[in-house]
Design the sequence.
């Protein structure tokens, strides 16, 4: 059963109170006060839904009672209807300024009392309902904002993990690549030492066999050349590793070569692609230098290549071609990426750039690789991305973003 609304009648005349009780008693829960202080005590103890307040009372008049009610956060929203014999505009204006919602003039009309009390109680109930809904909405918004903050924190952590995984692959790739020339250089230096000893022995002989000496000199020359070439290759790889590691850990702008970034990425991923039958078709204008953050481009290429390896070529078990092309079009850089792998269904293609979407969850896929590429191109570079694909047709990615050309 719905609870009755409550009405407080405040009047210092018993006749007026009895009249109002006769009009309202069968519809509302009624409480009565015959002076201002008693009314305030009742309201603060158990706030009613509406107050019928006489203005002319000894001691504390109705205006003062209303003023104190509206000054209290607990009672300020209770509607107050003044009951008075005063009909001056100035008196009504003062009542409304103090926070009253309506006036009922004496002599009292029962139909007017019933109508106005019902109207303002309904308005109060509607206001209370809206306030509660607003409170619930604010609580929901607070919970939603907290959830969004947690998701962003989780997303940032996963992106950092993805970046660290990329850095780990880069370290492994460079270590694998530099191991070969270092090994060859070490072997050449060892042979060079042995050949030097043999040459010294020839020179210490009383009679020098010039054919043997000439052969030894030739061998020393070949070994020196081999040692120099492999040490030079090691230096290049170390420089590439240094350049890439700085770019991966920094968001500072600098002038960089597109070609260097592509080569660094291919070197860093060489360990993953080395035992596959995947070829690279790279087209990059010579001497193309940009001013920006090279680590972003490194991240894009790394994620695209790993996506192709894992998804397009089934972890490297399928052969194919990866195409990487760059060209300048006015103040824009056009980047085309494609692989000849398995391709995507339309359903997967439409979700490819969504964060955490992956078809490789069971194998530890984070679903952030393509999302990171999309975010960098659209947010960091203020560019555009178009992905097309079909089953058995590989993927084609066409990107375009504004650039500042360096020198």
Sequence:
């Amino acid at each position: 059963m719905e609870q009755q609304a409550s009405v407080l009648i405040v009047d210092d005349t018993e006749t007026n109170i009895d009249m109002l009780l006769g009009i309202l008693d069968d519809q509302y829960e009624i409480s009565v006060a015959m002076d201002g202080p008693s009314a305030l005590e009742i309201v603060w103890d158990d706030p009613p839904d509406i107050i019928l307040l006489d203005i002319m009372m000894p001691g504390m008049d109705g205006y003062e009672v209303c003023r104190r009610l509206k000054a209290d956060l607990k009672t300020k929203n209770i509607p107050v209807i003044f009951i008075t014999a005063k009909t001056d505009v100035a008196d009504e204006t003062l009542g409304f300024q103090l926070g009253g919602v309506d006036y009922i003039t004496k002599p009292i009309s029962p139909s007017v009392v019933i109508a106005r009390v019902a109207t303002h109680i309904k308005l109060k109930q509607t206001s209370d309902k809206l306030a509660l809904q607003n409170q619930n909405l604010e609580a929901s918004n607070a919970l939603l904002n907290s959830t969004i903050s947690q998701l962003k924190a989780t997303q940032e952590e996963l992106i950092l993990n993805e970046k660290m995984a990329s850095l780990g692959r880069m370290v492994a790739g460079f270590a694998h690549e530099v191991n070969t020339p270092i090994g060859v250089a070490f072997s050449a230096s060892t042979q060079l030492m042995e050949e030097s000893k043999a040459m010294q022995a020839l020179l210490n002989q009383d009679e020098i066999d010039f054919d043997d000496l000439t052969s030894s000199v030739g061998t020393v020359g070949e070994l020196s050349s081999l040692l120099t070439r492999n040490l030079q290759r090691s230096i290049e790889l170390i420089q590439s590793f240094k350049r890439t590691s700085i770019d991966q850990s920094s968001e500072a702008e600098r002038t960089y070569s597109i070609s260097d970034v592509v080569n660094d990425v291919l070197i860093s991923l060489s360990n993953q692609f080395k035992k596959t039958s995947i070829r690279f078709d790279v087209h990059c204008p010579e001497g193309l230098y940009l001013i920006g953050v090279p680590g972003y481009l490194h991240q894009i290429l790394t994620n695209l290549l790993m996506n192709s390896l894992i998804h397009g070529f089934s972890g490297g078990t399928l052969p194919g071609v990866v195409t990487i092309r760059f060209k300048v079009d006015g103040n824009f850089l056009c980047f085309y990426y494609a692989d000849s792998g398995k391709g995507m269904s339309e359903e997967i293609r439409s979700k490819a750039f969504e964060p955490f979407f992956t078809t490789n969850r069971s194998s530890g896929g984070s679903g952030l690789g393509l999302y990171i590429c999309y975010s960098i191109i659209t947010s960091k570079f203020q560019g555009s991305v178009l992905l097309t694909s079909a089953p058995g047709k590989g993927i084609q990615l066409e990107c375009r973003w504004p650039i500042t050309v360096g020198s």
